[in-house]
Write a structure and sequence with these properties.
Elements: H1 2-23, E1 32-33, H2 35-42, H3 46-58, E2 62-65, E3 69-72, H4 77-101, H5 104-122, H6 126-143, H7 147-155, H8 157-170, H9 173-178, H10 181-188, H11 192-214, E4 246-252, E5 258-264
Antiparallel strand pairs: 1-3, 2-3, 4-5
């Protein structure tokens, strides 16, 4: 019995450690997860490692293929497209319920995560920002007080990390950190309707960024936004605003419509 208990504890510990490594980007999509190496690292036999990997496969974090072994699952753009509306609905519900149950302690914890995102952005530490970003949303879902909602939200973690990682590779980290402030403000106000709409808009906006990343490149004559070259661009023909020199305001406007305002600091 003691041996079985020790093996179960090892299995859970290894599984939890691997989940954290996948979520913080230590093991990126497609990375091999080698059973024998992990057994040596954790100082155990391969049996609990094998069981932990089987758990992770059931959780859709890894996939095992013949002659390739275990690898972190790579999420396709199509899968992400299916995930967006589900996650937006989940977080909209979580925001509405969490606002009702909000306390000063939870507001402080959320503010700490936003500050952590800002520090990570200044240091260009994508891994740390991923961790703070994920925890910010997890606190909200936990505060909603619905265990089924939390379980379903957790089931989308690998897709969510893939989405955030792709966006953070293409967009200014400071801008992304600041985009969490409207959500924090709505929860601080304990406004359930506003919190729900801010969270839904937040997820939908990030989904639109991901769609832009995977949209086929346009010809030079069309420009980056489908306009003729030079139209709607700066003197160098580049559209958009430098993230390092811009302030971004994200929120919902009249009628619940999503708004994003970019104001140049130059």
């Amino acid at each position: 019995m003691a041996h079985a208990l020790t093996r179960t504890v090892l299995r859970e510990e290894i599984r939890n450690r691997l989940v954290e490594r996948i979520l913080d980007g230590t093991y990126p999509p497609g990375a091999r997860v080698v059973e024998s190496q992990l057994a040596r690292e954790f100082g155990t036999s391969q049996a609990p490692v094998r069981e932990a990997l089987r758990d992770l496969e059931g959780m859709r974090f890894i996939e095992t293929r013949p002659h390739r072994g275990a690898r972190v699952r790579e999420v396709t753009p199509e899968e992400l497209g299916h995930m967006y509306p589900v996650r937006a609905a989940l977080e909209e519900m979580a925001g509405r319920e969490a606002a009702i149950r909000m306390t000063d302690e939870v507001v402080a914890a959320l503010a700490d995560e936003v500050e952590g995102m800002r520090r990570a952005a200044v240091q260009n530490d994508v891994r740390a920002q991923l961790t703070h970003d994920r925890r910010f949303h997890e606190i909200i879902v936990e505060t909603a007080g619905n265990p089924v909602l939390l379980d379903v939200w957790h089931s989308l973690r690998i897709e969510t990390v893939t989405l955030i990682s792709a966006i953070k590779a293409h967009w200014d980290l400071r801008m992304i950190a600041e985009m969490h402030r409207p959500v924090l403000r709505a929860l601080e106000l304990r406004d359930s309707g506003l919190a729900a709409s801010e969270l839904k808009a937040h997820i939908e906006f990030f989904a639109s960024l991901e769609m832009d990343i995977h949209r086929p490149a346009r010809s030079p004559e069309q420009g980056v936004h489908g306009t003729a070259a030079g139209e709607g661009t700066d003197d160098d023909g580049a559209a958009g605003v430098d993230g390092a020199a811009a302030e971004v305001s994200v929120g919902t406007g009249e009628g619940g419509q999503f708004e994003t305002n970019v104001v140049s600091n130059e």
